[in-house]
Design a protein that fits this description.
This protein has one domain. It has four helices and no strands. The longest helix is centred in the N-terminal third of the chain and has 28 residues.
Length: about 140
């Protein structure tokens, strides 16, 4: 039995709201990442590339969305009736991998990050697609 005092799931916000906020933050991060990637690929020299601050903001939004997603993934099962119960945990793992590769890109900023950016984008897009499916059936 969950107590109504401090601690436990009773003190957390509604998991459905957490999932919605997480979903919208991660959607914003995906949109920002798409814009950053397009600007980076169109740049003809280093001066035209997106700013470091824009990349950090993109990463922070994504990290906050992921942090909010984790309690929902660890909470009660969602999407079981649709056969999508594992989509949430898989999305969380993939988005964690995208966060890690984004951090690697940040550390290797002065070196050409095109390969790391492609890996980051592939992992992030796959994780986001899993999240969209899980969010849609939950």
């Amino acid at each position: 039995m969950i107590s109504s005092g401090c601690g436990g799931w009773a003190s957390w916000p509604d998991p459905t709201r957490l999932l919605a906020v997480s979903f919208y933050l991660l959607t914003a991060a995906v949109a920002a990442g798409t814009i950053l990637a397009l600007l980076h690929l169109r740049a003809t020299d280093a001066a035209m590339r997106p700013s470091l601050l824009a990349g950090i903001a993109h990463g922070l939004i994504g990290a906050i969305g992921l942090i909010l997603l984790i309690p929902v993934v660890l909470g009660p099962a969602r999407g079981v009736a649709a056969g999508a119960a594992v989509f949430g945990p898989i999305a969380a793992w993939l988005l964690s991998g995208a966060l890690a590769t984004g951090g690697i890109m940040l550390l290797r900023r002065r070196k050409d990050p095109a390969v790391t950016m492609a890996i980051h984008a592939g992992i992030a897009i796959t994780g986001y697609a899993m999240l969209v499916a899980w969010y849609a059936v939950s």
